[in-house]
Design brief:
By secondary structure, the chain is mainly α. It has one domain. 51% of the residues lie in helices and 0% in strands. The chain is built from two helices and no strands. The chain is globular. 0% of the residues are buried.
Length: 51
């Protein structure tokens, strides 16, 4: 399963369980995963803030 697919499932599960805040650690390295995670979160309709 792709990392973004896992993140999408994690956010959906968090919403279903009534969580209003989650922390996503994307790690360090080449920056590709960080870039993909940030873009996914910015585009997600239920995400209010990314920092």
């Amino acid at each position: 399963m792709r990392p973004v697919s896992l993140l999408d499932k994690f956010l959906n599960d968090a919403l279903i369980n009534g969580w209003d805040e989650v922390i996503v650690y994307h790690g360090i390295g080449t920056g590709k995963l960080s870039y993909a995670v940030k873009n996914f979160l910015i585009a997600h309709p239920r995400v209010q803030r990314v920092r």
